[in-house]
Every structure is written in structure tokens, then in C-alpha cells.
Amino acid sequence: MKAGPSVKRISPAPSAAKPVATKRKARALSQGKKYAAIRRDLERQRKAMLEEAGEGIANPKGQEAFPDVSDQASAEAEQNFSMRIREREQRLVKKIDEALDRMDQSTYGICERCEEEIPYPRLKARPVTTLCINCKTLEEQEEKIRR
């Protein structure tokens, strides 16, 4: 029996995939350093908000019955106000989580609309933003026209 021609397997060059991965890791590392202060601020703010929410759950203010109608109305108005604040805080915690996820994915600081880099001072002032100031201005103008 005659042996067939030997087949030599050619494996892809190992360096072909490495530069992209290396660049991605380098970008993530530099971005991690660049936004480290913002990350700490976001994590601190998230922790404080969750602790405050936990205290509210542990020590709830029950619905009190007041003999005076105006006192009852004031108590209900205060309770409604507190609920709106908690809802806003919940939305902010969600935005903080999304910002931290973007940091982990190395997409933090990139405008979702124009894909340009959001200036650091804007991120420092509004760390959960997803739009640069120009795109945010355009969004607000479009929203104003729709009303």
C-alpha cells in the first residue's frame, strides 16, 4: 500500500489576532486609569444611595391617620414627594450601573450619537451622560420641536 502525500497543516499566524486584543486591553487599561476618579465617585454615590434605600425599607414610615383633614393631606403630599424622590434615585442607580458597565466594556466617554469622545470636564460634571454637549443640545432642540 502506497502512502498518500503528506498533508501539512498550516495554522494561522498567532500574531494575527493578538494586535487587536492587545490594543483593546491597552485601551481598556488606559481608560481605566483615565476615568478612575469618576468610577470611584460613581461607586461611592451608588453605595450611599443603596444604603439610604435600605434604611428606608428597614424603618418605613407607616400611613398615619390624622384627625385633621389638612394634616392628613400634608402627610400624603409628603409621602408622594418621598416616593418621587425614591423613583428618581432608582433611575439614577440604573444610570450609574450602565455607566460602570460602559467603563468595563471600554465604551465609556464615547457619545452614543456621534461616537466622538465626550470631554472629560463634561463627564466629571455629569458622569452618567451618554451624549456630548453638542448632541445633547440637538436632542433637547428636537424634543422642544416635538412638543
Average pLDDT rating: 81
| Morphology call | flat
The strand count comes to: 0
Q: Provide a count of the helices.
A: 5
Following the backbone from N to C, one meets helices and strands in this order, namely: HHHHH
What does this structure look like?
With 147 residues, the protein is an all-alpha fold. It has two domains: 79 residues; 39 residues, no CATH class. Helices cover 65% and strands 0% of the residues. It has five helices and no strands.
Question: What brief labels describe this structure?
Answer:
2 domains; mainly alpha; 147 residues; 65% helix
Topology:
Elements: H1 18-34, H2 36-58, H3 69-104, H4 120-125, H5 133-146
Helix pairs in contact: 2-3
